[in-house]
Design a protein that fits this description.
The chain is built from nine helices and seven strands; from the N terminus they run E-E-E-H-H-H-E-E-E-E-H-H-H-H-H-H. By secondary structure, it is α+β, with helices and mostly antiparallel strands. The protein has a seven-stranded mixed beta sheet with strand order 2-1-3-7-6-5-4, sandwiched between helices. It is rod-shaped. Keywords: Cell inner membrane, Cell membrane, Ion transport, Magnesium, Membrane, Transmembrane, Transmembrane helix, Transport, Zinc.
Length: 326
């Protein structure tokens, strides 16, 4: 989809040069080859392809051709079920900001709505201001994703360190497996957010080093604020990664405890069964001169002796907390 996003007007699809009138922001959303070719024809600028945006070296992500700046970064996208990252490209000229993306992003949608609802009496932002507005929207969205990640980790922490109850112990294995899956997803999300923040930070550094906002002090100040916000979010990501590692270690520790409890139970069962088996083996021997062979109450005596030999170790293990709620 090839969209023109003029200030104070709703977005419209670009089919001819007339559709670009008054628009300083052109948005290529999941563009086809034909739409990329049309954008190159109407703007006279080279459009990056997806394979260009997926390059990882800095020289391929941030460069300048003549007076046109080409920028790209991976940007994380979070939905209810999964976290994905797609490359986003920015082409910045004196008169146009062109974005190339292969997924819907809330930051772009939010900025598009704000731009469409902009008061017509206000001066229209130029391409440089639009690029800065987009960076700010990206940082704000990444901050929202990190806030959601922090809330999710708080819930996991409360569940992992919840007080022991009989019901919890019955479902402990299921809960711990679910916790490991959630921590894995949260770790992937934190890693993707960190990559996105790194990409946004490099874009800001590249624009600053090239003096793109040198002649405009208000925009230069906003760019510095974006850099400080990215730095603070990076600190939050580092803290979040440490918390994920801590919760992962704690979960694995609880898994070891559950396994030890299982081994304790097997030990109790094995030990309790030894004495009755020994008694049954002794009184089950078919020798002629067994002294107790003629006892009238020998059967009941042997049963009582076996029950007593089971009861004593059970009480002993219970008092030491190997099983039960003591």
């Amino acid at each position: 989809m090839f969209l023109a996003r003029p200030a104070g007007q709703p977005a419209r699809e670009v089919i001819s040069a007339a559709d670009m009138t008054g628009a300083a922001w052109l948005d290529l959303l999941r563009p086809t080859k034909e739409e990329i070719a049309l954008a190159e024809k109407l703007t006279g600028l080279k459009m990056p392809r997806r394979e260009d945006l997926e390059e990882i070296e800095s020289s391929s992500r941030h460069y300048k051709l003549g007076e046109v700046i080409y920028l790209s970064t991976p940007l994380v996208r979070r939905d209810e079920e999964d976290v994905t990252a797609f490359p986003v490209g920015l082409v910045l000229s004196d008169t146009l900001l062109i974005t190339v993306r292969y997924s819907d992003y809330m930051a772009f949608d939010t900025m598009g709505r704000d731009l469409a609802s902009r008061d017509l009496d206000m001066p229209n932002p130029d391409s440089s201001e639009l690029a800065l507005m987009l960076l700010e929207a990206m940082v704000n969205r990444l901050a929202d994703v990190l806030e959601a990640l922090g809330r999710s980790l708080d819930q996991v922490s409360r569940r992992v360190f919840a007080a022991d109850t009989p019901r919890r112990r019955v479902r402990a294995a299921e809960m711990l497996r679910q916790t490991l899956r959630e921590l894995g997803k949260n770790g992937d999300m934190a890693s993707s957010v960190r990559d996105s923040l790194l990409g946004v930070d490099r874009i800001g550094i590249f624009l600053g080093d090239n003096g793109h906002y040198q002649s405009n002090m208000p925009l230069q100040l906003r760019l510095k604020i974006v850099g400080r916000d990215v730095a603070s979010l990076n600190d939050f990501v580092a803290q979040t990664v440490n918390k994920i590692q801590f919760l992962l270690d704690a979960t694995l520790g609880f898994i070891s405890i559950e396994q030890n409890d299982g081994m304790k139970l097997l030990t109790v069962v094995s030990f309790v069964g030894i004495a009755p088996t020994l008694i049954a083996g002794i009184y089950g021997m078919n020798f002629k001169n067994i002294p107790e062979l003629g006892w009238q109450n020998g059967y009941y005596y042997s049963l009582a002796l076996m029950a007593f030999s089971m009861f004593v170790p059970l009480v002993w293990f219970w008092q030491r907390g190997w099983f039960g709620d003591r």
